[in-house]
Design goal:
With 259 residues, this protein is of the alpha/beta class. Helices cover 43% and strands 20% of the residues.
């Protein structure tokens, strides 16, 4: 008997260790079907068998399913607020600033933070940047610190010249900045969030989850913040009732823990 989509979804979730039910189903089905078309896979039975037996296909499935698009200084207005308001306040208040870039993709977001703190002349011993993602493959790419022109299109020329060297059509990040970021694999749906974070970036992630999962993750992110810590979301993501999570809206996509 041929598997239907719901049966495939449940079995595939176990195979890839990601609960696909947590994501918006229309998006999940669309992306899976497009991948099957690309690989000329006739039905869900064949797709599931390939997930179980073909490591290369499983890697392609995970890569296609997770969205790995990011760039340096994405949404410049928000990063300007971070540099002019949030970081100075944290620098004055904390001996060591703890920062978590969740779902960091290719590393351009946490490296942006490291560049900003370096520009503010903060000693690396006085901050920690942890960057996590569910996709091990993209983490390996992030650690290399090599980017194409599209990744740095919003970066000031002075910053590019100061922190990147160019080799053919690639931009190679200064090793000093790379050393400021620690990468590790993390599943937002299953793994511990830790605590005492002064700034958590979880940007352009909520748009893929169901309302229930978004609510659960927001509670966990808020609880992981230190008192007066900041949560920085994506430009199109907002909390209708931030006080429900013990947060106050500060500016655009920034929320501050109030308890």
């Amino acid at each position: 008997m041929t598997l239907n989509f719901d049966q495939f979804k449940d079995k595939a979730s176990k195979s890839i260790d990601i609960d696909l039910s947590s994501y918006k189903m229309k998006r999940v089905k669309r992306r899976i079907n497009s991948l099957m078309d690309r690989h000329d896979i006739k039905d869900y039975d064949e797709c599931l068998e390939l997930l179980k037996t073909d490591r290369k296909f499983k890697k392609a499935f995970l890569s296609h399913f997770t969205i790995n698009t990011s760039e340096f200084f994405r949404n410049p207005k928000n990063f300007n607020y971070l540099q002019k308001e949030v970081f100075p306040e944290l620098i004055n208040r904390k001996k060591k600033i703890k920062i978590w870039s969740a779902a960091c993709s290719n590393g351009s977001e946490p490296y942006t933070l490291a560049i900003m703190l370096n520009e503010l002349k903060v000693n690396p011993r006085n901050f920690e940047i942890q960057a996590t993602d569910i996709d091990n493959e993209i983490l390996r790419e992030a650690k290399k610190g090599v980017y194409n022109e599209n990744s740095i299109k919003k970066v000031d020329t002075k910053i590019i010249n100061k922190y990147f060297s160019k080799k053919e059509d690639k931009y190679i990040l200064d090793p000093k900045i790379k050393r400021m970021v620690k990468f590790k694999q993390h599943n937002l749906l299953k793994d511990s969030y830790g605590n005492g974070w002064d700034l958590i970036l979880c940007r352009n992630v909520f748009i893929y989850f169901t309302k229930e999962i978004k609510d659960e993750i927001t509670h966990k992110l808020s609880n992981a913040l230190d008192r007066d810590g900041y949560l920085f979301l994506g430009n199109t993501e907002y909390l209708l009732n931030p006080s429900k999570y013990g947060l106050d809206k500060e500016f655009a996509s920034f929320y501050k823990r109030n308890n």
